[in-house]
Amino acid sequence: MKLEFPKDFLWGSATASYQVEGAVNQDGKGMTSWDKYYHMPNRKYNGDVSTDHYNRYKEDIKLLSEINQKTYRFSVSWARIFPNGSGEINEKGLQFYDNLVDELLANNIEPNLTLYHWDMPLALMYKGGWLNREVVDNFVEYSKVLFTHFRGRVKLWSTINEPASEVMGGYIQGAHPPLRKNYTEALQVAHHLNLAHAKAVKLFNEMNMEGEIGIVLNPIPIHPASNKEEDIIAAKRAYDFYSDWYIAPILAGKYPEIMLEECQKKYNSPKIEPGDMEILKGAKVDYLGVNYYMRRVVANNPDSTGNIDDCFKNVRVKDGNYTEWGWEIYPEGLYELLSRIQKDYGKIDFYITENGMGFYDKVESNGQVVDDDRLDYIRQHIIQIHRCLEDGINIKGYYVWSAIDLLSWTNGFEKRYGLIRVDFDTLERSIKKSGRWYADFIANNYIEY
Ligand code: BGP
């Protein structure tokens, strides 16, 4: 069977500033929360050089063009534009993204710009980061500079990448900066991220910007470990916690009621000021960006300490197909997830803003990376996209994570995702088998199934 895709479907791949750019002290960039984090004692790696995309973007865009990318998703480092988080603009920082965007356009690659992919200017982190409501206005000030500067050239915009990861990594698990483990703070941070997003969307519309604006979420489809009622309840709670807590404010301007009530009772958070929910409601997105990697299977946790994410526990499925990093490969989950969102909130446009497979790449003696597993992972997910389209779920584009090998936030340079390989000793680039396959697929725009 031949699975064909719409002619204007945008096929591409993604990166994020801190993970790919390197050049952390170049051209007046300010320090970010991640620069600080990776230079704490006993860190084994950092993004100081990484892929050095900042200095090699031309070569990288040439390679992206060679593998037929129609679009490229990247993020802007806030601290390159505002080294102190706000106030004075660093023109050289803007110049880099000017060059990048112009080079993409010259190669017929549609830029998709994410305003914030976790690398908060350190000056703002010292003011309290997203916990400080003032940072919301700093974000709007920063967004305005980019909207003004790239008006007409960038047509696809995302405000924030994965607020859930920022909240969980930074404020619940204490694994990302600022290394906090505090539910009251976490819930407040989530609310401020939503406000920042909503205010940027409002500004985008007031400025009559051409193009589309959305947010990138990482909702996760959740399966109960059994048919027992307690596991079904646990799965519902887990979906609220991982997914709906972030989807509902974006698509409906509200928080899931049961969880909101519990959080306000237990943690006295989030504090919602009068008018906040109207701001969220008023910010209609043009699309929802979805990063999809895996599903979760959860069971009731009999040993719960009573915290909101403690009444369920993640379990491993007996016959599940897991990556070397323990992420379950479950392509159907993409279809299940988008169907569920559409069922809950009505029809909306989607972009799959990240999807990909991280593992230890092996380099053959001839220097090639024959990454059949990654190729198959991507292929399987593209088949699910087709299934969505057939079912009336409007996906407009798909981005492989990642365009090129880069730093994995908490796994360093071992866990690879790229369509393009980077030798991190020499910084030489080469296209992997998955990259060649993806290029052919894009040229054909169909999959033989
Ligand atoms: C997403 C992030 C990406 C990327 C990806 C892979 O959550 O948006 O920035 O890191 O996950 O994650 P990891 O590198 O931890 O395997």
UniProtKB/TrEMBL annotation:
Annotated positions binding substrate: 19, 117, 161, 293, 401
Pfam families per the UniProt record, alphabetical: Glyco_hydro_1
A single GO CC term for this protein reads: cytosol
* Gene Ontology BP terms: cellulose catabolic process
One GO MF annotation is: beta-glucosidase activity
- Active site per database record: 162, 354
EC number(s) reported in the record? 3.2.1.21
Assigned keywords, A-Z: Carbohydrate metabolism, Cellulose degradation, Glycosidase, Hydrolase, Polysaccharide degradation
Reaction catalyzed: Hydrolysis of terminal, non-reducing beta-D-glucosyl residues with release of beta-D-glucose
Q: What class of enzyme is it?
A: hydrolase
Q: Which family does it belong to?
A: Belongs to the glycosyl hydrolase 1 family.
The name on file for this protein is Beta-glucosidase
